[in-house]
Design brief:
The chain has 4 helices and 26 strands.
Length: about 400
């Protein structure tokens, strides 16, 4: 993944300006996978989002509570589910002022802030607070979360990274990002040991007119809330329905926590592909070995570099591919353990896919990544698959994490 700091990403690509073309056609009934019984399962959806212009964006509802007070909670709708990052990041503007989330302090006893830069040159910046997080019937207590676009510190986001700050619903395409990646923390031991880590900063004064790098303990770092559940915490299963070309108005699926812990998350026939500590697999595509590949629901297309696929013309469309006719591909995914799985996919003309009426679920959308060593298997990869993700250091009946299995 291509962030300046870190190894996980979410790709936010323009959609309204990518429109045009014709022949989109009417979408059929929305594909659906039923949410199974159990306190470890919750619904997820793909729809056009709060702005009405998002595609291949997976959403869930997240309930946030004042730490230790189950009577003071707020449910945030349309939070982007991102298996390519770690930790919950919510727009400060989406939260009630009386939610009473405790702000964390940095190494100088002043407010602690978090930075993450995404692969598309956007970034998220804001103070770190603690909250109890409820996902379906599961709760993680006293978890560090980022408050994106906090007005008191938004002007300092330039200390985080270059590019656009994701600090509004319009720029983010949701009310937050739920990072359920393979890693337990967004940074890990490096941020415990060094203040020059690029993830964590602290104000230099009570007025917070400037910031400096700061260490952060593991407890202060943004963490995967699913790995902090009291049970069903060794991984997750994402079950999404298949989507036929050219797409669907939306879809409904299931997010199930734990692997082999309840009847609804058994992995009887999945092939385990173990990853590096950074979550990388190897993709072999047309003779090229892309050893920094990853699976990422936060990316809204399949992103890889191709010398044969034509890119779309026009401002805002250069990232996506626009072949004259749909192109068929076959790739092989290899895990660190030597196991492999074949994946077939189709790349269609993005300009035609974005034609009116816009569909939210586009299984054949793909674009250029700008990295000859990587393949970003975005949300279209997950359509029609039951994908297991084993968290780092956690044991499962399939094996120890980190891994993907499908």
């Amino acid at each position: 993944m291509l962030m300046r700091w870190g190894l996980w990403c979410i790709v936010c690509a323009c959609l309204i300006s990518c429109g045009g073309g014709g022949g989109g056609g009417a979408a059929g009934p929305n594909p659906t996978v039923s949410v199974p019984a159990g306190n470890n399962a919750m619904p997820v959806t793909v729809d056009l989002g709060p702005n009405g212009d998002s595609v291949n964006r997976l959403y869930a509802s997240v309930t946030l509570c004042e730490p230790g007070n189950a009577n003071n909670c707020q449910t945030i709708e349309q939070v982007v589910v991102d298996t390519g990052s770690t930790g919950l990041r919510l727009l400060a503007s989406a939260l009630r002022s009386d939610l009473n989330l405790g702000r964390l302090k940095g190494s100088q006893g002043l407010p602690l802030l978090n930075c993450i830069q995404f692969v598309d040159n956007t970034h998220a910046w804001g103070p770190v607070a603690t909250a109890d997080i409820r996902l379906g019937g599961k709760t993680a207590a006293a978890v560090a979360v980022q408050l994106m676009g906090d007005t008191a510190t938004a002007a300092l986001s330039g200390d985080c990274a270059a590019g656009e700050a994701l600090n509004t619903v319009a720029s983010l395409g949701g009310n937050g990002v739920l990072g359920l990646g393979l890693r337990r923390q967004d940074c890990g031991s490096g941020c415990v040991a060094s203040s020059g880590n690029g993830y964590y900063f602290s104000c230099t004064s009570a007025a917070c007119t400037s910031v400096q790098g700061s260490v952060a303990s593991l407890q202060q770092q943004l963490s995967n809330p699913a790995a902090l559940f009291a049970s069903d915490n060794n991984g997750l299963l994402l079950d999404l329905p298949a989507v036929a070309a050219p797409g669907a108005a939306g879809l409904s699926g299931a997010l199930i926590f734990g692997i082999g812990t309840q009847a609804n998350n058994q992995a009887l026939s999945a092939t385990l592909l173990s990853t590096s500590t950074n979550g990388y697999l190897t993709t072999v595509l047309r003779g090229r070995s892309l050893n920094r590949s990853f699976l990422d629901t936060g990316s809204n297309a399949l992103f890889f570099d191709s010398s044969t696929l034509a890119r779309c013309a026009g401002t805002g469309r250069l990232r996506f591919y626009c072949p004259d006719t749909a192109a068929n591909f076959s790739a092989q995914l290899f895990g660190q353990n030597g196991s492999s799985k074949s994946v077939n996919f189709v790349v269609d003309n993005a300009q035609g896919l974005f034609a009116s009426p816009l569909k939210a679920a586009l299984p054949t959308l793909a674009g250029a990544l700008g990295d000859s060593t990587s393949f970003d298997w975005g949300l279209p990869f997950f359509y029609g698959r039951r994908v297991f993700m084993g968290f780092e250091g956690q044991a499962t009946p399939l094996g120890n994490g980190p891994f993907y299995a499908f």
